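Objective 1b: paired records.
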Amino acid sequence: MKRDSIRALTASRGQDDSALRSVLVSLPGFDVEVCSNSYEQVLARGGLEDVQAAFVYLDGIEAEGLKLVGRLMASQPDLAVFVVSEKPGTDLVVSSIRAGAADVVAADAGTADLLKHMVRLVEARRKLPGGGCHKLVTVFSPRGGVGATTLAVNLAVSLKQQTGARIALVDLDLQNGEVPAFLNFRHPYSILDLVENVGNLDPVFLQGTLYQHSSGVAVLPAPPMLEDSESLSGSDVAAVLKALKAQYDYVVVDTPPVLNDVVLPAIEAAEPLYLLTGNTIPAVRALQRVCGTLKRVGLTPDNMKLLVAGAAAAGEVTDDDIADVSRLPVSGCLPSDPTVAGSALSQGRSVFAADEDSKLAVAMSAIAARLAGPAAVVKPPQRRGLFSRFTPAGGAS
């Protein structure tokens, strides 16, 4: 799992900073490097471009310390400066904030307090120019059993592997959500917890609610009880997806094979929407009805990517037939690979962990690579010619 790296320094007049440094370097999910400095050493530095956070000890030297805070902020406005005190009080907080400090922390601050500050620091850094793409990616199939959840789960995992970006995976199949089974985990929280706290969806709350999978993907499961799903509305889902999109580089949404008020917000905001269909006549008819409905509600095909699961045998429905019926070009095909897909599901892991050289894994990687664009780092396939079997029509991603 990729961890966020932070370089920090402490500035003191001889105060013991060992307790603070010990907590910082052990924060879960972060690689924090901390160096100790005197006030004079900090002022003598030629620049702080390589430092993201500074902790200034203030006890007994308030005026001098606040002056240092001001100089640090003047020299590097993006630096997060924290005042450290044995007894932080209201007056100190007010004077520190006025000097430009981000906050005041206790000298004996614990993991929870410092983790909150580091999460906010990283999220603020991501919002700077070039700090992330923030895309909502939705997977939808008009019929069940085609492989929509397989695609959503493995697309999220592959995006994480190839880009190292922050990835969230949302299980929006409120009645039959199977994402936890696909990734072999149980979690006490679900999308319902976010809806119930929709006014408090800050980065710390989000990170604590989503399940942090070993792949590096943060997962938001569906509610555990069927009746709970009835309390969610389209506006609730839209608010949750908006909050997640603001905090994650990619939000991948797995949806049920039905169009309703809960699913539509994920489809309307998708960039892109992956429409997955089988090559049977019932599947194509269902696709035709869905495409007609999406057109009537005002959605354009600009961000729709049509994927076909399985290869057509002689005399069966072809990609050209599917494109003609849906009025969408076929962007690619997911090869039928029941052995790898079944093995991955039974073991609760991705298709890449089951067999990264399989046709299905290579096809999934290709979809993620085209979605990520220049940010993707794709390993060459181990078997000659596999990428040639997944060549998008017209070069679409």
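Objective 1b, second protein:
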Amino acid sequence: MIEFRSVSYAFGDVPVLEDVSLTIDDGEFVLLAGANGSGKTTLLRHCNGLLTPDAGDVLVDDTPVDENPIAARSSVGMVFQHPRDQFVAATVGADVAFGPENLGLDRDEIDRRVTTALEAVNMAGREDERIEALSGGEQARVAIAGALAMAPMHLVLDEPFTGLDDRARRSVLSHLESLTADGTGVLLATHDLRDVLELADRVIAMGDGRVVVDDPPEQACEELAALDVRVP
């Protein structure tokens, strides 16, 4: 479970999050909606300690993130808006292996996790391919595999469809659907709910750094149009 307890955060003198309280349950598929600048990305970066709140607390599995960021990063896999921002190696296999290696796992377990993660995103057998030669959709899948190799309880994605064509978008959606069916919690930030709304258990919307909607999908759609969120 991921908990935000009265979280506030500012960049300098500019408030970005203001008194945000949320709970994301294990196995839940949650959409985090809102226009650009509403605070979505900043909120997500608190999930595994990339940012630390100015006030309030963020907990993963009842443990404050700032007390044990390694545990948080093991439980919460993060996929950034632009996959290139998170790649640390030149080849697919080396990049997906990076996280498990940093957990200090033995080589057999690392190899097993890399194989399993790449199979989950239909990239099996492509460990030696160079990331720079992949399409945008393939890079997005490698980024997801890198997060999955950490065996997280939650997968957090920030605008994962940016720059993807329709075919790549549908491929990523298919994999997310399979993951959530297997029990992985998904927290997906987007300003465009096409195709993802039907997968969601819950929709949270942000505006000016605050939670302004937190409802089941059907009810939430009635409230989102005024927030510059594209509703199907």
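The radius of gyration is 17 Å. The chain has seven helices and ten strands.
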